[in-house]
Amino acid sequence: MGSHRWQRSGKEKPHYAPIINFAGDPTNPEKYGFGGTWFNPDVKLRVFTSPKDWGVGRNIEFVGSMPDIALLNDIRRTGGFGLIWSGDPYWLEYMKHNCSFKLSTYLAAGLPVIVNSGTPARDIIEKKTWELLPTRFLKQSNGFKQ
Which ranges carry the Glucosyltransferase 3-like C-terminal domain (predicted)? Predict the structure, then answer.
């Protein structure tokens, strides 16, 4: 898993918030493809990419990209959940080699992580005996349509 060198700004601890943090562009149809369909008035999607028109009126906050230390402090302060997600078999295979950065970022910030069942991060979470949040939670929240 990736490693992060960072210093906390202040003594804030992550807290529960109806927020899902996603590092990446969720509208990339080959990798993720859920961004354009996101809508949940009760759960905000925070996306670490440049602003896009599709997010208007969908409870989406575009945060932009930021250096590692700033990202960790930002998601720690904001709270909520981290998201590792892909519905495409090719990209799920790719994520076996690449998802460690996203997973380690969310865990280093102290956030619980939401993963879909085919994501390799699920195996890591299960081996560490961390709790899994079932994907039906996301489907029931109307955040994802898969």
Answer: 20-128
Tokens of 107: 């865990």
Of 22, 57, 53, nearest to 40 by C-alpha is 57
List, run by run, the mean pLDDT of 10-residue segments along the chain (146 residues).
Answer: 50 82 76 73 91 86 91 92 80 71 85 77 69 50 47
> Taking every pair of C-alpha atoms in the chain, what is the biggest distance, in angstroms?
41
- Do 28 and 36 touch, CB atoms closer than 8 A? no
* Neighbour order of strands in the sheet with 44-47: 60-62, 44-47, 19-22, 81-84, 113-115
